[in-house]
Every structure is written in C-alpha cells, then in structure tokens.
C-alpha cells in the first residue's frame, strides 16, 4: 500500500482530536449531570497536543517530540479511561493501573532516549501502554454498572478493542523491525495506528452523545409515567404497567387484587386549611402506601385524592392485611394543625375472577369503596359488597 506522509497524518489526527474534544466539552456544559464527559473531552484535547508535538517534529527540541508527546498522549488516554469509568459507574481499579503504568513508561522513554537511543523501542513502549489502556476502557464500557443502550455501548467497546489490537500489533512489529532513523518518514506500521486512533476519537464522541441521548430519553419517559407530587405512578404509568401485569399470567398462580383508596373528607381539609396542606396530606398518604406495599405491588395516584393499588399474585386474606395496614398507617399520620381531625382513608378491595379484566376489577373495587364511604369511612370493604364488611374504626 502507498505510504502516507506522517506529518500530514499527525496533523489530521491532532486537528480532529482537538475539534471533537472542544465539541464534547461544549456538550458537557449543556449536560453537566452526566459524570465523566468533561474528562473524556479534556483527554481528547490532551491527545491533540501530544500528537501535535509529533507534527512539529524537527521544528521543536527533539526531547519534546520524543518524550513529552508520548507522555501527554498516553496520559490523555488514561484520563479518557477515568472519564469512561465515571460515566459507566465502574470501578477505577483499571484506571489506577494505567496511571501507575505511566511511571515505568516515562523511565523507559528516558532510558531509550538518553542512554540507549532507540526510536523503535520508544514507540513500542508507548504503543504497549496505549493498547493496555484502550483494552481497559473496553472492559470498563462492557462491565460498568450504569444502564445504557446496548448498541452505542458495545459499538464504543468494539472501537476501543479494535484500536487496542492495532497498538499491540504495532508494538510487536516494531520490536522485530529494523531501527527507524527518521520518524517523520515512518511507514504504514506507524500510520495505521494513528488513523485508527482518529477513528476512535470520532467514535468516542459520537457514542457518548448517543449514550447520553438514550439516558435523557429514558429520563423523560420515567417522568411521564410518574405523578409530580407523590412520585407514584400516574394513569399513563398505570396503562404501561398493568399491561405487563395482566398479560404475564404464567408467573402468577394466584389472582390479581385491586384496591381503590380515597382520603376521607379531603375537600374539607382543602377548604379549611388550604391547598398546600391538602397537597402535603396527599404526599403523606402516598408515603404510607409505599411503605406498606410490597416491592412488586404497584401504587398509582388515580386522580385527586384517590389511589389505586395493584397486588399481583396475592391471596385475598393477605390483601386484606395490607389494606388494614395502610388504613392504620394513614390514621396515625401526624397532624399538620391542632384543629385538624385525624386523617383517614377508605379502601375498597376486589379480587380477579375468571373472565375479569382490569376495568371490571376497578369497577368492583370502586363499588366497594363507595360502600366503605356509605358505612362511615375509615374502613375496608371487600367486593362484592354483599360480603361481610371488614371494618375497624378508631374511637
């Protein structure tokens, strides 16, 4: 294959690295909540400086091109690894290994410049450190704890893995090759890793933007299914989750139980104490509901002062215990004013039978709730309403 001009290659890589680094840094200013992006951006600027010193080979002192450029380049990739560790919420152990590896790298560069001058060995040593750091980055991207879209995640991991491979091959070939006198006249063995690094820099920037976009999309989706006041699921969240609950019947040998809850005399609380106190009452009640239900139960703010609770795979007797637990917990909420009566809640419970869908379950629970209101509030009624009422009132 025809050789490329090494000075041109280094200029292109340095220029693109700087442009993408600055662009990623501006992107970080708009998305400061995501850790590590700023470090990756700074690392790309460092890489640009390191490769730019190679471009200036022959116009600046030789030790700057031979020693400082390699240290800045390898240090930049170590910083990039640390930024990826932060973004992927991964252990920084591999980053520490890469950072400590800069010490023997610096000593080797000194030795093979001032004592036993060998351009091949210096380049092979730097390639080895770069390859190890890039391999570490590949591992961190795959093993990180943060949840990300798999396609950009594995695309970025593949890019780091492939460039790491080119660095290892370069180090192996340099050890066996004849000594190079003029680095600026280097052939494809040196040029291909630089071009692959340019590809990696672009892939890193694009993949990070892709990954952040995925997190933002999931964040918006999560907000859209949650109630702003209570953080319980809203009606949209109910539609999304109930489809999963009602369709996955193979894992639910026991029926679905639905509870419809309503805060008693809530309009009077709003009228007497104001809507801010009313909102706080709703928040307090939602907190007690969340504390009383199981992890796989679904609590929903159904509307206003009404709450809907779905208990999959639950015996009716257990659902009754949960309902009474909620009722007692709400009744014992500390009062916001001395003149305020104890907060109470009425609950209607319905159990799924053959042929029932969610709408019919909610209708039955609503009828039971109406019966609880009719019977004096602060009680639990199980549908159908002709069944014996389960009631417990505080004096």
UniProtKB/TrEMBL annotation:
It comes from the Bacteria. It is an enzyme of class 2 (transferase). Gene3D superfamilies: 3.30.70.270. SUPFAM superfamilies: Nucleotide cyclase. Its EC number is 2.7.7.65. The chain crosses the membrane at residues 6-27, 39-57, 63-85, 97-115, 121-142, 154-174, 194-212. Residues 254-385 form the GGDEF domain. It holds the Pfam family GGDEF. It catalyses: 2 GTP = 3',3'-c-di-GMP + 2 diphosphate. Keywords: Membrane, Transmembrane, Transmembrane helix. SMART domains: GGDEF. This is diguanylate cyclase. It comes from Photobacterium leiognathi.
